[in-house]
Amino acid sequence: MSTESAIRKLVALSAFPLQSTRFMFAPSPLRECQYLFILFIQVATVWILRSDDAQEAFLCGFFTTLLALRLLPTLTWELPPDLVDDRINTSDSDEKQKSLGAKLLWGLSWISTLRGVSWSWQVKNTPPPQVYPSRIDYVSRKSVEVFLYGVIVDILWKMRLLSDFTKYQGGLEGYGSSASKGLIQLAINSAFGLVSLYCITIYNYERMALYAVILHISRPEDWPPILGPIEEAYSLRKFWAKSWHQLFRNIFEKYSRGVNMLFGLNPHTTLSRNISRFLAFFISGLIHAVPLAGMPYPNGLPKDKNTPYRGSDQIVFFMIHAALCLVEELFSNIYMKTRKRRSVRPWEKQIGFTWVLVCLLFTVQYLFDEMELSGLNDKDTITGWRFIEWLERMLGRSFIS
């Protein structure tokens, strides 16, 4: 491990204890300035330095950026969240919350669950259940789900290693290699990548939830389903607001409130809504772009040829979708004025699904190609247990060749 990699990793890991201590002490302007300075140093270090290992580089950049974006509003325009967990009904809960140790544990819970711990079911794309499962029931059910999704991801990853799906083959000029393969191959690559991303997202989230609940870091109700109903994705706005994960929504809304306060905007106006939308997509781009900035140099390319490779395509992808959502909203407003029926007809939903699919298939290259170039996906397995290889050895035959 190089010196740059070691420093980068230590700085990234320091974000966790830093944020855990944020609410242990009484707020003061001096302390908030100290936190702001430390945040600046952390993000700058992760952005400038590079790691030898792509996976390590991505995780360091991802967590540092995400935690910094989450902590920043509490240092500026937003009041810190209530340290008392409303779901603790014991008589001595107030005394527990007053101790520094309890506040530190609360801080760990706060950063481990992006939707928040001091308020229940902080997610808007899926309704809360009538009854929360017990810890034993939750662990039993999630263990099965993690195993099944792990098998699916293992199969998809084996297919990817043996096939030419979303493999980077071009130079750094332009926006990656997928577009150079033709529209049909681009659509196939993108479809496979989207299915893989869908399954990997669920697998990683369910695994984190399982570990957190087993270790009593958080509770089952702190981990609602990560993805909303796919049948709601008949518009691009619904896809991003309901069907795709809402892990960062709490962060987006903090910055939207800050912009509204700064300019004195009514949050219910069209202008405020569109500013919030573009801001949310831009922040999403940052969350994905900064981790790629510290990736190892692409294999076989000299360092002086590496200037364009800084994660910019990630921001391009999200800003394209912000613009597409605006176009969709304008068209929808005009179209709705020409019809009397307010409910959506089945054929209109089919057109909507087609529109969303086309938008994703022909723009997701901006999201995937830089990841391929970085070497992030150059590994034999993603689940760790190599289920397919174990099954092939046991049966003495190869399923995918």
TrEMBL record:
| InterPro entries reported for this sequence | Wax_synthase (IPR044851), Wax_synthase_dom (IPR032805)
> Where does the UniProt annotation locate this protein?
Membrane
* Main location, first listed in the record: membrane
Q: What are the transmembrane regions?
A: 144-163, 183-205, 278-295, 315-331, 351-368
Gene Ontology molecular function: O-acyltransferase activity
Recorded topology in the membrane:
Multi-pass membrane protein
Task: Please give the family membership noted in the entry.
Answer: Belongs to the wax synthase family.
GO BP terms: namely:
lipid metabolic process
Name assigned to this protein = Wax synthase domain-containing protein
This entry carries the following GO cellular component terms, namely:
membrane
* Superkingdom assignment: Eukaryota
Keywords carried by this UniProt record: Membrane, Transferase, Transmembrane, Transmembrane helix
One family name in Pfam for this protein: MBOAT_2
Q: Where does the record place the Wax synthase domain? A: 223-290
